[in-house]
Amino acid sequence: MDNVEAHITIKTIDHARENGVLLLTLPSHTSHRLQPLDRAVYGPFKKAYNATMDGWIRSHPGRTVTIYDIPTIVSETQLCAMSQRNIKAGFTATGIYPYNKDIFMDADFASAAVTDRQNPEANADAADLDPIPGPSSGAVGSSPILRPNSCGIGQQPVSSSCGYVSPSAIYPFPRDEPRKTK
């Protein structure tokens, strides 16, 4: 499961425990890499569905596919794509089972780093502190020194400010020409 609030409720957790179901939730920004069905079932399903649909169109020239034809096409496709072998391959590809913690490198999740923020409440006490010197402070090519920002939102480079910049200041809104009257 992903971590959507609607998926993780007390009622859901209790129901799972009562029925011996172990819930596995995926960390944020990793579902594209950790969903077994996405990795090994839906791709083959789409490919098989398209092939089956092409065959149906060839064997029924001039006819349009209706909602009554779709279940037959999907049922033929499911047997090919949703096999036990493909499902197991999905869990292996994601490193869920057998467990493989080294299946991904840190670079695979670099795009999620832009959303990493500290709790603003944790920074409230330290907001008046001077910049925190880092271990490589002053070194050429070192990362910027970070300090809690005065806005109380995460950590910002020392040189940044938290003033609001309107989108119109960056790129003015286009103006329409006056109406022409006849």
TrEMBL record:
Disordered, as annotated region: 118-182
GO molecular function, one term: nucleic acid binding
DDE-1 domain span: 2-56
InterPro entries given in the database record: DDE_SF_endonuclease_dom
Biased composition regions of type Low complexity, renumbered to the chain: 135-144
Polar residues bias locations: 152-163
Protein name stated in the entry: DDE-1 domain-containing protein
Pfam families, A to Z: DDE_1
